[in-house]
Please model this.
Amino acid sequence: MLEFAFVITFLMTLLLAIISFSRAYNVYQTITRAAREGARMAVLPTCATCGNSYMDPSSGVTQQNSEIFSGYIAPALRAANLNPDSVFNYSETVGWLDSGDADEQCGVTIRFEYPYDLRLPFAGWQFATLNLSTNVQMRRENQPTGTTCP
Model:
Protein backbone atom coordinates (compact mmCIF):
# COMPACT_ATOMS: atom_id res chain seq x y z
CA MET A 1 0.00 0.00 0.00
CA LEU A 2 2.80 2.39 0.85
CA GLU A 3 4.50 1.83 -2.51
CA PHE A 4 1.20 2.33 -4.31
CA ALA A 5 0.70 5.65 -2.49
CA PHE A 6 4.12 6.91 -3.62
CA VAL A 7 3.66 5.72 -7.19
CA ILE A 8 0.14 7.09 -7.61
CA THR A 9 1.23 10.47 -6.21
CA PHE A 10 4.11 10.64 -8.67
CA LEU A 11 1.93 9.54 -11.61
CA MET A 12 -0.85 12.01 -10.80
CA THR A 13 1.65 14.85 -10.48
CA LEU A 14 3.16 13.89 -13.83
CA LEU A 15 -0.29 13.70 -15.43
CA LEU A 16 -1.32 17.12 -14.11
CA ALA A 17 1.96 18.64 -15.31
CA ILE A 18 1.41 17.20 -18.78
CA ILE A 19 -2.13 18.62 -18.88
CA SER A 20 -0.97 22.05 -17.73
CA PHE A 21 1.91 22.32 -20.20
CA SER A 22 -0.31 20.99 -22.99
CA ARG A 23 -2.75 23.81 -22.34
CA ALA A 24 0.12 26.32 -22.39
CA TYR A 25 1.20 24.98 -25.78
CA ASN A 26 -2.39 25.22 -27.01
CA VAL A 27 -2.54 28.88 -25.94
CA TYR A 28 0.80 29.53 -27.69
CA GLN A 29 -0.52 28.00 -30.92
CA THR A 30 -3.70 30.06 -30.62
CA ILE A 31 -1.93 33.38 -30.19
CA THR A 32 0.37 32.55 -33.11
CA ARG A 33 -2.64 31.74 -35.30
CA ALA A 34 -4.33 34.99 -34.26
CA ALA A 35 -1.18 37.00 -35.10
CA ARG A 36 -1.00 35.21 -38.45
CA GLU A 37 -4.62 36.21 -39.19
CA GLY A 38 -3.82 39.84 -38.43
CA ALA A 39 -0.66 39.80 -40.54
CA ARG A 40 -2.49 38.14 -43.42
CA MET A 41 -5.12 40.87 -43.45
CA ALA A 42 -2.45 43.54 -43.15
CA VAL A 43 -0.55 42.41 -46.26
CA LEU A 44 -3.49 41.89 -48.59
CA PRO A 45 -3.40 44.16 -51.62
CA THR A 46 -5.73 47.12 -51.39
CA CYS A 47 -8.15 47.98 -54.15
CA ALA A 48 -11.33 50.01 -54.46
CA THR A 49 -13.60 46.99 -54.95
CA CYS A 50 -12.09 44.31 -52.70
CA GLY A 51 -13.11 45.92 -49.40
CA ASN A 52 -9.66 45.75 -47.80
CA SER A 53 -8.90 49.17 -46.39
CA TYR A 54 -5.66 48.43 -44.59
CA MET A 55 -3.80 51.01 -46.66
CA ASP A 56 -5.34 54.08 -48.28
CA PRO A 57 -4.05 53.92 -51.88
CA SER A 58 -4.22 57.68 -52.41
CA SER A 59 -2.18 58.64 -49.34
CA GLY A 60 -0.30 55.41 -48.60
CA VAL A 61 -1.23 55.77 -44.92
CA THR A 62 -1.85 52.55 -43.03
CA GLN A 63 -4.63 52.01 -40.51
CA GLN A 64 -3.92 52.22 -36.83
CA ASN A 65 -2.62 49.08 -35.13
CA SER A 66 -5.80 48.89 -33.07
CA GLU A 67 -7.92 48.36 -36.21
CA ILE A 68 -5.97 45.24 -37.21
CA PHE A 69 -5.95 44.07 -33.60
CA SER A 70 -9.63 44.73 -32.92
CA GLY A 71 -10.81 43.55 -36.33
CA TYR A 72 -8.83 40.34 -36.77
CA ILE A 73 -6.61 39.36 -33.83
CA ALA A 74 -9.07 39.94 -30.97
CA PRO A 75 -11.90 37.90 -32.58
CA ALA A 76 -9.50 35.00 -33.17
CA LEU A 77 -8.49 35.10 -29.50
CA ARG A 78 -12.11 35.32 -28.35
CA ALA A 79 -13.02 32.32 -30.51
CA ALA A 80 -10.52 30.27 -28.48
CA ASN A 81 -11.83 31.63 -25.16
CA LEU A 82 -8.78 33.84 -24.59
CA ASN A 83 -9.11 37.39 -23.29
CA PRO A 84 -7.81 39.96 -25.84
CA ASP A 85 -7.47 42.51 -23.02
CA SER A 86 -4.64 40.40 -21.55
CA VAL A 87 -2.41 40.95 -24.61
CA PHE A 88 0.56 43.19 -23.89
CA ASN A 89 3.58 44.56 -25.79
CA TYR A 90 1.59 44.56 -29.04
CA SER A 91 3.47 45.96 -32.01
CA GLU A 92 2.80 46.01 -35.71
CA THR A 93 5.63 47.03 -38.01
CA VAL A 94 5.55 47.63 -41.75
CA GLY A 95 9.02 47.41 -43.26
CA TRP A 96 11.78 45.18 -44.52
CA LEU A 97 11.54 41.65 -43.18
CA ASP A 98 14.43 39.86 -41.48
CA SER A 99 14.66 36.98 -43.92
CA GLY A 100 18.41 36.46 -43.77
CA ASP A 101 18.60 36.58 -47.55
CA ALA A 102 20.24 39.25 -49.63
CA ASP A 103 16.88 39.66 -51.39
CA GLU A 104 14.96 41.68 -48.80
CA GLN A 105 11.20 41.74 -48.93
CA CYS A 106 8.72 44.30 -47.71
CA GLY A 107 6.11 43.05 -45.27
CA VAL A 108 4.41 43.23 -41.91
CA THR A 109 5.65 41.97 -38.54
CA ILE A 110 3.22 41.48 -35.68
CA ARG A 111 4.50 40.78 -32.17
CA PHE A 112 2.75 40.47 -28.84
CA GLU A 113 2.75 38.58 -25.57
CA TYR A 114 0.04 36.78 -23.65
CA PRO A 115 0.23 35.68 -19.99
CA TYR A 116 -0.55 32.08 -19.10
CA ASP A 117 -0.99 31.04 -15.47
CA LEU A 118 0.35 27.60 -14.62
CA ARG A 119 -2.28 26.29 -12.23
CA LEU A 120 -2.95 22.99 -10.58
CA PRO A 121 -6.17 21.74 -12.21
CA PHE A 122 -9.16 21.37 -9.91
CA ALA A 123 -7.37 23.12 -7.03
CA GLY A 124 -6.75 26.61 -8.42
CA TRP A 125 -3.23 26.90 -7.05
CA GLN A 126 -1.10 29.11 -9.26
CA PHE A 127 2.54 28.08 -9.59
CA ALA A 128 3.84 30.64 -12.07
CA THR A 129 2.89 32.94 -14.93
CA LEU A 130 4.44 32.28 -18.33
CA ASN A 131 4.58 35.16 -20.78
CA LEU A 132 4.02 33.46 -24.13
CA SER A 133 5.28 35.57 -27.03
CA THR A 134 4.64 35.38 -30.73
CA ASN A 135 6.37 36.98 -33.70
CA VAL A 136 4.77 36.63 -37.14
CA GLN A 137 6.21 38.01 -40.36
CA MET A 138 4.34 38.06 -43.64
CA ARG A 139 5.55 39.48 -46.93
CA ARG A 140 3.43 41.91 -48.92
CA GLU A 141 2.05 40.91 -52.27
CA ASN A 142 2.77 43.12 -55.31
CA GLN A 143 5.95 44.49 -53.75
CA PRO A 144 6.96 48.00 -54.72
CA THR A 145 9.87 48.54 -57.02
CA GLY A 146 12.69 50.70 -55.75
CA THR A 147 14.27 51.00 -52.36
CA THR A 148 11.31 52.10 -50.26
CA CYS A 149 8.93 49.94 -48.32
CA PRO A 150 5.54 51.55 -47.69
About this structure: The beta strands are 88-96, 106-119, 126-139. The first strand starts at residue 88 and ends at 96. The chain has one domain: 2-139.
